[in-house]
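INFO  loader      accepted 1 record
INFO  loader      residues=56
INFO  predictor   begin
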Amino acid sequence: MENLTVSDRTQCLKIKLKPEKTEYAIAWIKNLYKQLEEVKQVLSNEGIIVESIFME
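INFO  predictor   done
INFO  writer      dumping tokens
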């Protein structure tokens, strides 16, 4: 396993969804889980170690 270091490119974004887009966003997130291996590969190729989505 390679050594991991903290990047200076760390970001934390809070994006307010329009009320009529909430269900679409939830469906999109569920779709990511259906393609989890592909998503992991894409994130890894981009150098992304952790990607998190939180909904209030």
